[in-house]
Amino acid sequence: MESRSVNDAELARDIAEEAGRLLLAIRAEGREDGKALGVRGDHEANALILARLAAARPGDAILSEEAGDDRVRCACPRVWIVDPLDGTREYSEGRDDWAVHVALAVDRVPLIGAVALPAQGVTFDSGQQFATIETPRRPRMVVSRTRPPEAALTVARALDAELIPMGSAGAKAMAVVDGRADIYLHAGGQYEWDNCAPAAVAIAAGLSATRLDGAALVYNCEDPMLPDLLICRAELRDVVLAILAGT
């Protein structure tokens, strides 16, 4: 029988924070750098997360970026979707805009999520209380540090939005959750593990989280690619979607 001594949101948060502490400790050792550091971090954080989930929720399926994909998960109503280290480049460069994602999709809906930002000392989860944040007169949009998608730049020009370069998908999405930004738009390719936990937290915070055509985000698909994403303040959703529809 599965242990339910903690609820799913608490479990996701606990595991994400534990993996984050491990990643910080690995980086602090200074034994590796560059790609080798990222590879070790990914591997060890993944092993920790999978072991914790297997012990706490043995009846659930798991989809992780760093593990083989068992398609048996497609028939499971409860699937944990995990990115042990989102933003490997930022982690390896000693930056703080990387994350740990632990999410639970139930019947393909991103119901539970935790996004830890270990180097920033903060974790967001779908079970917490969120403050109401008003959209400023000039919206702020988080974009990739190195390759912002043209769709994001088009929306930014139309809204005269301030662009804020940032690293991982989790860091970008949580910047919208905590009020440092108002829009996160991605196009050009992501996988379910890149955005399931951020989407679950964003939805719990009252934000809009959809595909770029306004369609719902669906998880635990046979092909885990989920190529585009829009997380934004609810009052900006329709105007952003209209701009995208007109391009």
UniProtKB/TrEMBL annotation:
Pfam family of the protein (one): Inositol_P
Tagged with keyword Transport: no
Catalytic activity field: adenosine 3',5'-bisphosphate + H2O = AMP + phosphate
CDD domains: CysQ (cd01638)
InterPro entries: CysQ/Inositol_MonoPase, Inositol_monoP_metal-BS, Inositol_monophosphatase-like
GO function term, MF aspect, one: 3'(2'),5'-bisphosphate nucleotidase activity
Alphabetic keyword roster: Hydrolase, Magnesium, Metal-binding
Superkingdom of this protein's organism: Bacteria
Protein name: 3'(2'),5-bisphosphonucleoside 3'(2')-phosphohydrolase
